[in-house]
Amino acid sequence: MEKTQQRKGILPILFLGYIAIYIDKLVIGVIAVPLAEQLNLSIDEKSYIFSAFFIGYSIMQIPFGYLNDKLGSKFVLIISLSIITVASIVFGSASTLIALITARFFAGIGHAGYPTSSARTVTDTYPMEKRTWAQSILISTSGIASIIGPLLIPIVIGAFGWRGSMFCIAFLFVLALILVIWKLPNMHKEKQKNKQVKAKAAIPFWRVVTNPAVVLLFIAMCSINIVLYTIANWTPTYLADERDISLGVISIIVAVAGLGSLLGSFGTAYIVGRFFQHREKRVIFVLSIITAGSALLVYQSSSIVVLTFWLFLCYMCSVMIFSTMFSLPLKRLHESIVGTATGVVNTGATLGGVFAPMIVAQLVGAFGNYQTVFIAIAVAALVTCLFVAFIPNMKTTQKA
């Protein structure tokens, strides 16, 4: 009964933090349009800002995952949210490219702690059969943020400028931080108190990083995040530069795509969690094919309405792939290494965010348009299902 009461309070707290996390991640693409105009930034300079975030994100995934297993998720959540809050305020105050890059680098460091500590909290709180549901509900915040963020940010930018929008995002992080400190139980401390004398030998770090499921998920997460972050961060720039669409219409298109993200997350929670337990690889295969095809059709569509539909479908399916894969470490790996393993897998995911802006800048620079960018998205989706196909089944991965 006590653990059931804890579950009721934990998910809303993590949910709010995830809303702030995804708004910060996803609306930076919209904010980058007026920011680049005001500071006269080139496409390469914008790519440095995006990449700096994911470099910081990548280098701290494994350390934060390790700290989750050793010191507990509440500690990491507090550190993570504190760093992001400060970095958001600095970014909103910055006037030079170096300051913007540095602020986003530290924002990435802060972001790195949140998914791993949330996954650790879900593992400590929920039984295995409910972990896909809980994790998918949290990831559904990406869809909510994708709808709310693009619709509200242009209004906030119009009223307060792009700097004001960053300060508003910082305020969300402050709220999440207060709730974590005040209301989130310290599961690690409770587990230490209730620990039975039958202590197990610690699993060496090298065995975690060489686990076949972890290695394959690392690569697959990298490729699917190339898809997700190319869509999230570069769609506004593509629509503005190549399609000559206004920021207001772009915001509506991005918000509709965000609805696809939301439905994809809830779809994973319900459909995969309920009907496809231990058959996730088949789901990912089908979704990868749909993602690749719809990405190609986004560029080919001359109608804005048709383009929006294919973008919606592409985003929905790629988020379902991501949500399904993100829950696999929670179900297929030993609880004692979930934090570290999730950190390793998330490092692959964030490397996708590092590579995405580099790929876009290189392809647009070489070909002068975004056609090859959408081809790259399709290829990355197919690479994802290829590596997921080789992930060992439950029986072979339950033991680290």
Short description:
It is found in: Cell membrane. With 400 residues, the chain is mainly α.
Structure in words:
This protein is mainly α and 400 residues long. The model is unreliable at 196-200 and 394-400 (pLDDT under 50). It is built from 16 helices and no strands. The protein folds into 2 domains: 7-189, MFS general substrate transporter like domains (Growth Hormone, Chain: A, Up-down Bundle), CATH 1.20.1250; 204-393, MFS general substrate transporter like domains (Growth Hormone, Chain: A, Up-down Bundle). The protein has helices at 2-26, 28-39, 43-71, 73-93, 97-125, 128-139, 141-183, 187-193, 205-209, 212-241, 247-275, 280-300, 304-332, 338-367, 371-388, 394-397. The longest helix has 43 residues, at 141-183. The protein is globular. Helix 3 (43-71) runs antiparallel to helix 4 (73-93).
Total tally of structural domains: 2
Order of helices and strands: HHHHHHHHHHHHHHHH
Figure out the total of helices.
16
For the terminal residues, how far apart are their CA atoms? Answer: 31 Å
Membrane topology: Multi-pass membrane protein
Transmembrane segments: 12-36, 48-68, 75-91, 97-116, 137-158, 164-184, 205-229, 249-271, 283-301, 307-330, 337-360, 372-391
Domain Major facilitator superfamily (MFS) profile: 10-396
Main location: membrane
Could you give the topology of this structure?
Blueprint: H1 2-26, H2 28-39, H3 43-71, H4 73-93, H5 97-125, H6 128-139, H7 141-183, H8 187-193, H9 205-209, H10 212-241, H11 247-275, H12 280-300, H13 304-332, H14 338-367, H15 371-388, H16 394-397
Helix pairs in contact: 1-5, 1-6, 1-7, 2-7, 2-10, 3-4, 3-5, 3-14, 4-5, 4-7, 5-6, 5-14, 6-11, 6-13, 7-11, 10-11, 10-13, 10-14, 10-15, 11-13, 12-13, 12-15, 14-15
